[in-house]
Write a structure and sequence with these properties.
Structural class: mainly alpha
Helix content: over 70%
Distance between the termini: 50 Å
Order of helices and strands: HHHHHHH
Largest sheet: none
Strand content: under 5%
């Protein structure tokens, strides 16, 4: 259980550090990729230690958590977790294989990816997280929000 939670928190911190504009260069690709690898380790830990390599167990566990929180007996959120993992890993690989096309990708792809990932992280840390995890999530999103705001303000003052 400890490894499952620890890898999730480390991945979240790397996500925040890679996403925050102030920390973008020069190590953002390394942090982004390390975050994807650590998150993949989190998924492996969760399936090994918590779900015993059973998708049915992961689905049932997600359904139970969703029911306890929202009153909806549905485990389909586990599929969103699969998509999240795949997108992060694919994006990290893309950045290493073709950094120029990754940098020039359409803004819609960038916003859709980060919007989805932020939604998933928010739910995983703040909505479904336990107390300590919830506070780490709130702090992480506060850092991201403040840094994005500061970045916008500095761009306006330069223009």
């Amino acid at each position: 259980m400890f490894l499952t939670r620890a890898t999730a928190m480390v991945a979240f911190v790397l996500y925040v550090l890679a996403f925050v504009p102030r920390f973008k260069r020069p190590w953002s690709r390394v942090r982004w990729s390390a975050g994807a690898v650590v998150f993949l380790a989190h998924v492996i830990c969760a399936f090994h230690f918590v779900h015993h390599w059973s998708h049915a167990d992961a689905y049932a566990s997600t359904a139970k958590q969703t029911y306890e929180l929202a009153g909806l007996d549905w485990g389909g959120g586990v599929y969103f977790n699969y998509v999240f993992t795949a997108l992060w890993v694919v994006d990290a690989v893309w950045w290493w294989v073709s950094p120029v096309s990754h940098e020039k990708r359409h803004r819609l792809i960038l916003y859709a990816l980060h919007g989805f990932m932020a939604f998933m992280w928010f739910n995983g840390t703040v909505v479904f997280g336990r107390e300590a995890t919830r506070w780490v999530g709130v702090a992480g999103f506060a850092v991201v929000g403040m840094s994005l705001l500061a970045s916008r303000i500095s761009k306006r003052s330069i223009s």
